[in-house]
Amino acid sequence: MTPQQKRTLDYVRAYHAEHGRAPTMQEIADATGVKAKSQVSRQLNTLAEYGFLRRTNHFSGKYVPAEVPAVDLAHVPTETLRAELDRRQTESAR
């Protein structure tokens, strides 16, 4: 693993632990000193190939630490999902 890949992995892990979600490519670039998001994308793909990260889904292109368990939302009650969305909207309005 290169030093830049290590910085990227450490940042993704710390960000996810603090915020409960994956950072954007721009956030990763800003935090790790990378100028191009395409370079961040290559690093994320490589870290996923090595098994350190996994994609949350193919639409968003976000990556989370591999040790974070996947959540199957099909088994989460609708009311629980709505309550979480309401909580996040209230939190982001602050």
CATH topology: Arc Repressor Mutant, subunit A
Could you say how many structural domains there are in total? 1
Largest sheet: 2 strands, antiparallel
What distance lies between the first and last C-alpha atoms, to the nearest angstrom?
A: 39 Å
Q: Bin the strand percentage.
A: 5-15%
CATH architecture classification name: Orthogonal Bundle
Mean pLDDT over the full residue set: 85
Element-level helix/strand string: HHHEEH
Total number of strands: 2
Could you say which structural class the secondary elements and strand pairing correspond to? mainly alpha
Q: What assembly state would you assign to the polypeptide chains in this entry?
A: single chain
CATH superfamily: Winged helix-like DNA-binding domain superfamily/Winged helix DNA-binding domain
Task: Please identify the top-level CATH class.
Answer: Mainly Alpha
* Integer-rounded radius of gyration: 15 Å
Strand order of the largest sheet: 1-2
Fraction of residues in helix: 55-70%
**Gross morphology:** globular
Helix segment tally: 4
Poorly predicted tracts of residues: none
